[in-house]
Amino acid sequence: ITSYMLNAMLNFSGLYGNLFACRDKDGSFLGVVTIVPPYKSHTLFFLHFARSVMTLGRPPSYSWGKDATARFDAFNACMEEHKNAMKGVSHYYIPLVGVSEAAQGKGVGRKLLQTAKIVADNVPFYLDCHDGNVAFYEKQGMAHRTNYPMVPKGFEEDKFSYNGMTFGL
């Protein structure tokens, strides 16, 4: 599922925002940041994201039954946390920041976030991250706004914690 969701985020950002990749002098992939401009309508944002996912087809190993419904509900809960954290403030959304394992700890993530700040041009932005990444984002000047559990109904074993991070509020 990881590659499926990665492709969904890349597809979404490619269609409706910006995608910036960082490569070394040899052309090897170091990292990526995706940036989606402000939406006036949360519903439109959600529909655009759904459209991006639908073009990828059915996720591998997922059924369209209970499993898909549970994950859809969990994603919707994530988007509600995002909406509540931003309280109607116009902002950019960063669906994805990823750094290759070989490039971690070498300043690539910092450079990718600097790119996001330049693109946002003093407009706030929001991203979600796992617990292990909160300290990194705080070092980059982001504020920790919310921590919430992601628990797909009926799949409690898949529970994990997510954090809403903001910059420029």
UniProtKB/TrEMBL annotation:
GO MF, any single term: acyltransferase activity, transferring groups other than amino-acyl groups
Pfam families in UniProt: Acetyltransf_1
Superkingdom to which the source organism belongs: Eukaryota
InterPro entries registered for this protein in UniProt: Acyl_CoA_acyltransferase (IPR016181), GNAT_dom (IPR000182)
Residue ranges constituting the N-acetyltransferase domain according to the UniProt record: 33-169
UniProt protein name: N-acetyltransferase domain-containing protein
Organism: Pseudictyota dubia
